[in-house]
Specification:
alpha/beta; 121 residues; 4 helices; 4 strands; four-stranded parallel sheet
């Protein structure tokens, strides 16, 4: 087995009504999952790590505006090309489910929970 780069897919805005505290909690959950991926010996990736700075730099004024939508999900879907797999965490999320769909279409491994990820030593 080789070390993998694994995209962590979970809710970002889903169920938050765009409440910043709830979004922050979702990001924390994905970041915690990323640490678990790392501790299993792999390289974690989150679309938010790449997309959010670009969205800000591009001049997005409000979450969900045209600039946000141009970058947020598309960049994560494109990151899957560079990942070996995707792990799904958290609750309901159309965006996270879309990442699984893209991963399957691209022939990537899909993990439905962190425990499915093999440890790399």
């Amino acid at each position: 087995m080789k070390r993998q780069m694994i995209l962590v897919a979970g809710p970002y805005r889903s169920g938050t009504n765009d409440d910043p505290a709830l979004i922050e909690a979702n990001v924390k959950q994905m970041t915690s999952a990323s640490l678990s991926v790392y501790r299993r010996g792999h390289i974690p990736m989150m679309g938010e790590w790449v997309a959010l700075p670009l969205i800000e730099e591009a001049g997005s004024k409000v979450m969900g505006d045209d600039i946000f939508n141009e970058i947020f999900h598309p960049i994560a879907a494109n990151l899957i090309d560079f990942c070996d797999g995707v792990v799904r965490i958290g609750g309901a999320s159309a965006g996270a489910d879309y990442m699984l769909e893209v991963a399957r279409e691209k022939g990537k491994t899909v993990y439905m929970n962190l425990e499915e990820i093999p440890e790399y030593k």
